[in-house]
Write a structure and sequence with these properties.
The structure holds 2 protein chains of 2 kinds. In chain A, the strands form 2 sheets. Chain A has a 5-stranded mixed sheet with strand order 1-2-4-6-7. Chain A starts with 7 loop residues before the first strand and ends with a helix. The radius of gyration of chain A is 13 Å and the shape is globular. Chain A is an alpha/beta fold. The relative contact order of chain B is 0.20. Chain B starts with 12 loop residues before the first strand and ends in a 9-residue tail after the last strand. By secondary structure, chain B is of the alpha+beta class. In chain B, helix 2 packs antiparallel against helix 3. Chain B is built from 3 helices and 5 strands, in the order βααββαββ. Chain B has one domain: 2-Layer Sandwich (Heat Shock Protein 90). The mean pLDDT of chain B is 91. In chain B, 29% of the residues lie in helices and 22% in strands. Classes of the chains: A alpha/beta, B alpha+beta.
């Protein structure tokens, strides 16, 4: 029996794995590390994975969370997959802009907008 | 070495944590409660919380190298006009000027190195002393014009 992730909820839509965070605050280093492991389990051995990460429930995040996303992006790239982000609240998006990571990631307003672009 | 801010900090509240990031919630909760009591906006609280989180992570991981025998001291003072945070570790120190700019194109794909940059982005005053062991942060509630508290 496969283990259900605890920090992420995952569903498939139109061939895309859509992921939401269970935690509203992606700050604590320990949970970020666990989230990273859940993502790794999700993407490993899935060549060409299409992954959409929705930030719908996220109110806070830290630079460690950004680092986790960068690592995820690299893992997906190595698997010839595609990663998009969506539903990022303005204060969180400001963090992406300040760090210029809005240039590194493919970011959309809503899940539906992102799904159409895979 | 005595902090150059020692005289000002006499009236500050203090929270000391071990070098364990699981303990970092304590000073964060205390500061956030004080900010809300003094009427800071959620926008400011977001940035101050992020800056404090980054400062604590740096102090524990990079300053004290997760050494359980070392502590991180957070001193804080919140008024209706500003918040002052002082985060001090017991590590060997570092040179903040030597930290590369994480926004350079060749550094964007790197997973680390954004903490200080985010602190500078969200706080109005940022200064390091004692060879980088002490970080002094100020956020003015009504902008820098209200600096004279």
């Amino acid at each position: 029996m496969s283990e259900q992730p605890t920090h992420l909820s995952v569903r498939e839509q139109n061939g895309v794995h859509v992921v939401e965070f269970s935690d509203r605050k992606i700050l604590e280093e320990l949970s970020i590390s666990e989230i990273g492991e859940e993502f790794s389990s999700l993407v490993q051995d899935r060549q060409g994975i299409k992954l959409l990460v929705s930030f719908r429930n996220v109110e806070h995040l830290s630079s460690a969370a950004l680092g986790m996303l960068i690592t995820l992006n690299r893992q997906i790239d190595e698997n010839d997959g595609s990663l998009k982000l969506s539903d990022i609240a303005p204060p969180i998006f400001e963090v992406f802009k300040i760090t210029r990571l809005n240039k590194l990631f493919d970011i959309y307003d809503k899940v539906e907008d992102a799904l159409n672009m895979f | 070495m005595t902090s150059p801010h020692a005289k000002k900090m006499a009236a500050f509240k203090v929270c000391v944590i071990p070098s364990d990031l699981k303990e970092a919630h304590r000073p964060k909760e205390l500061v956030m409660q004080a900010l809300r009591r003094k009427g800071f906006s959620e926008q400011d609280i977001f940035g101050i919380k992020l800056a404090l989180e980054e400062a604590l992570t740096n102090a524990v991981k990079h300053g004290n190298r997760n050494d359980s025998t070392k502590t991180v001291t957070v001193r804080y003072r919140v008024t209706t006009r500003q918040v002052v945070l002082v985060v001090r570790d017991e590590g060997p120190g570092f040179e903040p000027e030597q930290v590369p700019d994480c926004r350079q194109p060749d550094r964007l794909p790197l997973p680390n190195g954004r903490g200080i940059m985010l602190i500078r982005a969200y706080m109005d005053e940022v200064s390091f002393c004692d060879n980088g062991r002490e970080l002094y942060l100020v956020k003015h509630r009504f902008g820098k014009a209200s600096a004279h508290d």
